[in-house]
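question for whoever is on the cluster today: can someone run the full assembly for these? two chains, 752 residues total. i dont have access anymore since they changed the login thing
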Amino acid sequence: MVRVNASGLHYRELNAIVRELLDNGEKEIELHDVCGQRYIGAGLSVKDAVIRIYGTPGNDLGAFMNGGKIEVFANSQDGIGNTANDGIIVVHGDSGDIIGHSMRGGRIYVRGNAGYRVGIHMKSYGDSVPVLVIGGFVRDFLGEYMAGGLLIVLGLEKDEEGNVVGNFVGTGMHGGTLYIRGEVEDYQLGKEVKAEEASPEDLVKIRPYIDEFCSFFGAEPDEILSERFLKLEPYTHRPYGKLYAY
Amino acid sequence: MAKRRSTADFVLERDDYKCIRCLACVRVCSYGANFYDERENMVFTENRKCVGCHFCEAICPTEAIVVQHNPLAIRWNAHWTSEVVTDIMKQAETGGVLLTSMGNDKPYFTYFDRMVLNASQVTNPSIDPLREPMEIRTFIGKKPLSLELEESEGSVALKTQIAPQLKLEVPIMFSAMSYGSISLNASKSLAKAAQTVGTYFNTGEGGLHKDLKEFGENMIVQCASGRFGVNVDYLNAGAAVEIKIGQGAKPGIGGHLPGEKVTEPISETRMIPVGTDAISPAPHHDIYSIEDLRQLIYAIKEATRYKKPVGVKIAAVHNVAPIASGIVRAGADFVVIDGIRGGTGATPKVTRDNVGIPIELAIAVVDKRLRDEGIRHLASIIVAGGIRKSSDVIKAIALGADAVYIGTAALVALGCHLCQKCYMGKCNWGIATQDPKLVRRLNPEIGARRAANLLRAWALEIKEILGGMGINAIESLRGNRDVLRGVGLQEHELEILGIKPAGEAW
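^ ran it for u. tokens below:
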């Protein structure tokens, strides 16, 4: 295990150090005093590498990530896991906007709340099914353009108005599944999604991810799963099939 | 109301005296326009099905076929043209958005045709490019303002670290065309031609087919709003990365590949399930500002370890100069500007024909803006959108471009006859189709030779013109608007182009 003090380092210096350590075969890296440095773990591809971050990392943490694990023991900022292909990101705090944007694989767990445009255009392909789990509430545009994968909002915390999600949930969604624990009003949903109560089979399907969430953050899976989950799926995989004159 | 019979755009005339009933034209037409009547022993054509691609005409062994415009398609009217009437009828029937392909075909002004070049006479001798060295090699990427040299023990070495560059033996590259919009054989043709000539082709936003990986050193990979096929290996597979914000044929709108076109091989490179719609959102949802763009540029630089130039492609729109300035300040190594004539595999006609500005004006204003702001050296300018011939390349560079991208011209070299039906996926020439029977018609070896020939021919012509102007390096042409003069342009247009009217001396 190597410990790096990030204090006063520009992101380019810090990321160069991290990359060099990984290139030299280091599998466990601890970054201390991180304060807003961007792109940590961008393009990380070492499957068994672990980067632990103490302090708040900057935007695009784990962008284009393709394996390994990043654990943040604080809040994180915008764009974590942007266009990720594989790997795990765990945030022991809140996260910002556009997390999991366009991710195609891997898993992201956020203990607290997240911002706007969460999980936009997530997609799955073959065996890769991206999973994004938010412990608290999220703001508007959750799962917009969603084309695949699994997005789970646990609503363990609620926003100022008592909501667990914002408006325009799943607008333009044409694939994947969104699970929301708690109440969602019809007006909060995009017109492309249909909502129904999650069945016991659905809950079995998401159970492994709830278990993993709890293993990181110490909650009780049965307690979480005892409440009602709403399941959102697109009406069609071809929302724009009849737009054109041929 | 009587059911409408669409009027034929083309009339196919078959000389019965020459026709030997070989039925080649019947077999090849993917639109099913030609048919054989056994009882009559005659070959006929259903003219309404003909798209005017001239393939049957090209392969007819006895030259019995002539395809021409139907002169009486609809009664002539300067305002209510046959195109307008046909479009209204189509929309009245379907209630849908009109689709089209290739570049804008409307008679907008082509400024290239209103600019003339200079030549040396007496006072500054011209150069003969056949006998004297003529430098047209071009480097794309950030340039330092000054060079620091290090002298030790009598030898001199460069101290300044130069940012990663693309090295072009000719200032012409093949623009972004995805595998999916064009066939694999078309992609291979361009890739191989780029390798032979020493320039680059661009994967477009459809991911990377495994057969194209070997051309990585001559490849630019694109990262667009849908992020299809984009992962860290893809970003590192080419010589440069291009973030696509927009393109000339459809500024401001996203892309939409219908599910029926997402076949097994296409699904593999785009990394999406077979049969699902591939939707590229209109904006990148992680880019709502220049600051956000900077973030993606540097995320890509980090993921590619600062070893590759990262560029940004935009459509030429009214505000192109300040936007380009923002892109350069965001850290892009090159800016690609695609004009209103830029081509595409599929686009709403209303967008293609009405949105954007001519590339000539965009080059002039962007180059000027970057010079005025003292940041022109920070990024190269690559221009695209209707570059048809070597003189267009020369004029574009004289207006301030570093290099050009050609798409339509490259496809024409492969056989394209501009029928504008790419979106149908039935291209008889084997270019804009995924049908294995049709794709086979394009031999990638021959295609590569033809595309390389085109670049070689243009390079020779560029050298010829440069020599005639007494210039022996393309560097001396770049942004050298003194070699251009306008003919028949208005004063304000001349001002925007930064050129003098013909007849005015230095």
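summary bc i know u wont read the tokens: The longest strand of chain A covers residues 28-35. The two ends of chain A are 61 Å apart (CA to CA).
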